[in-house]
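Two entries, shown back to back:
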Amino acid sequence: MILEDNQNVVKPRNSRAARPKVVYQWTVQDVQKWFRRHCYDYYVLYGEKFLQHEIIGRALIRINENQLYRMGIINPDHSQDICREILKLRLKTYILEFRDLERNNLYD
């Protein structure tokens, strides 16, 4: 009987790491996960409001303080902090989009 030693098998890696789902494709659950991770103190207070309004990724990156107020987040300090995190996400998304555009232009 031949035994194989699987510990020394080298599996080929993809040259590119798996990229997370783009924000525009996020579901309500993806937004909840992001909100819990980046706004934990506020997630406890307002996570249910994001669920009630069925905020998806496409809506999340467009939210402003006025919209948060209409959702029931009336504390200006809280809404500013949440908006700051949304702005960081928006900027990160734009940077990734620009990099993709540049990469595509290089190979065209």
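entry 2 starts here
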Amino acid sequence: MTPPQISSSSQSLLEDEEQPNTPKTPTPTPTKKSMKLALIPLIFIIFFEVSGGPYGAEAAIGAAGPLLAILGFLIFPFIWSVPEALVTAELATTFPGNGGFVIWADKAFGPFWGSLMGSWKLLSAVCNLASYPVLCLDYIKLVFPILSSGFPRYIAIFLITMFLSFLNYLGLSIVGYTAVVLGVLSLCPFWLITLFSIPKIDPSRWLSLGQKGVKKDWNLFFNTLFWNLNFWDNASTLAGEVEQPQKTFPKALFSAGIVTCFSYVLPLLGTTGAVPLEQGKWTDGYFANLAAMIAGNWLKYWMELGIVLSVIGLYEAQLSSCAYQILGMAEMGLLPRVFGVRSEWFNTPWIGICVPTLVALVVSYLTFADIVSSVNFLYSLGMLLEFASFLWLRRKMPNAKRPYQVPLSMPGLLVMCFVPSCFLVYVMVVAHRTVYIVSALLTVFAIAWYFFMEFCKTRMWFGFESAQDKVDDEDL
């Protein structure tokens, strides 16, 4: 059972305004000083959480043509990315604990919704995690065709996944500074392909709506945009590991937004303007062939290396988010305490790393398109709850200390959240029937898991303490 709120004259305003039955925000577990994330590493972790470069963006051209794809990557950030980043900046600085969006839903609506938020976001993140080795192989197979299918492909996925998870185990500070190096190196070939494209650009090619006879695939188009520009809130689960999160998060989100926008738009403008459109070829991995056509095979091979480096950064950032979300949920009592155990050597939540790795290994054997659709649907459910939590917390805790606050009144906030929410509903409506079935089953499992955890608390199983024990610990 959840312990009753303890009143004290020294309690903060936030604690005074909490509902009696809502667990307190977990105090971030003390970590070694070297483990704290500074601004620059956090910028690149957010960049890899969201993007990692334009790898995988080719499908937008194949689905709707150059004009709509370019406009999509120019306009969509303002419709979707900016509101999500603003919500993340306010809530992450107001409740800077491991768990991120789980804490926000818990504060707004109680532990049941916090648990459901955690389940939806964790499942979508783990599915997203599985997509990176698959995306990596879609590029590498152009150089090593043996990895296209069959047993060699399965072995390659397994080895890539296990190696990348081991890197994450070595520590969050290593992940952060590795992300800086990987970000620069993986973007270099796209800067180069943009420069080499300039003398060959025909601006009229940007206005093409696609080749005649090629039907628009709106489902693929919007899913590609959404997949390439979401997950801005994932880094919030690392807030307990960040130096001065109240100051660092807004700066990091703004900087990462600029890097992400330019990393998509400039290469798309360069390549679509320099090469005649063959829409059917614009699929995952086509940037490497474009590099060979525009600059030569040397840039193609660099592009292949770039995707490998990008996948490392994408995987490390996503797995860190999953691991520290699991750690935060364990601290909140939404998971057994064992899920919050840290490594004695590297201070990393090693069980929180192992669980997503094992699930990702299973999911990674699906096709890339199936993975993206499942990720987007589950993530949409979580984001609708996140926007609702944001609005309700503004109403419920109007006087709470907000180191960063979105400079809008409630009517403005409603409009800001309504527009991306409409898009979230659209993404869910156009999903395939299989995605509906899988998402429904996973949601039922998430609900059943919450009530199972509540039952375990009453029995004090899996390391859960009684309410009185928690009160005694807090008094000490």
